[in-house]
Amino acid sequence: MAKKGVMNSNEEVKSWGHWWLIAISVLMVSCAQPTPPEGMVYFSAGEIEIGSEKGLPNEAPIFETEVKAFLIDKHPVTVGQFKKFVLATGYETDAEKFGNSALFEFSKGHYKMVDGVTWQHPFGPEEPAAAPDHPVTHVSWNDANAYARWAGKRLPTEIEWEYAAKNGENTSNKYSWGDQLADSEGEFQANVWQGAFPFVNTAKDGYRYTSPVGSFGITQCGLSDMGGNVWEWCSDTYMLYGNLPENKHIDPRLKVIRGGSFMCDSTVCHGYRVTARQFTSQETSNFHMGFRCAQDI
Predict the structure, then answer these.
(1) Whole-prediction pTM value?
(2) For range 183-211, the mean pLDDT
(3) Which residues contact 224 (CB under 8 A, 6 or more apart)?
(4) CB distance 51 to 276 below 8 Å
(5) What is the pLDDT of residue 107?
(6) HSE-CB for 82 with a 13 A CA cutoff
(7) Distance separating alpha carbons of residues 78 and 100, to the nearest angstrom
(8) H or E element: which one contains 66?
(9) What's the DSSP call for residue 169?
């Protein structure tokens, strides 16, 4: 018989087994997440600090906000994915309706409208077709919204986009992958400009224009291209942070873009930082803007 206050071996096993089951149950509850649809990543609800005091003026002031749980695409919508949408619906993009879209004339350092440029032929009708695994470009905010609705999704809000870029946590990292453009072995972590903008691009990262999605790895949460490659449309109408008089006169046609692109240079816009933000009109399309989708839980 066991002494009072001392468990025998069977009792001890039962006791430890009991507490082990409780511990496992708690762990399973705290780590429980819905299985995301293929090609998407789940982000749980949380609080996040948005903005930066060290970036451009439109990134300040920093503010804290709550974010509801959501899903977001692992990578920007590709040419191949957009093609399925067009084949299924017969959709015509704004660029196709207008008959032209914007390209950057590097020799002169400015944009120009080029006839016949579309998502299928991003450099003109006589140039090679877009590769199916590259992000789709020459799509307006209107086009991106149409695709998202067809896919049963929506465009992410600007706050959701930054929350995802920060891996769902408050961080001082410049980029979604850390603080440096290249890793310790010199491998670039994003497709951005190298050289003297806008006349010299050495394409040291391997790509002068867009790159196949996922070419530069994934973040700790499983997302790719959260900096560089293409700017990404968000759902929001652009406005300044804070309760400012200027926000009373916002233009609802101006929409937020996030993430930077292969055109971004750290000495000019540095748009591939997690807090960087820009805007353009909702019917605009060009060769370095694309999008990814989000979805409510």
Answers:
(1) 0.88
(2) 94
(3) 74, 75, 213, 214, 215, 216, 217, 218
(4) no
(5) 86
(6) 29
(7) 21
(8) strand 63-67
(9) S
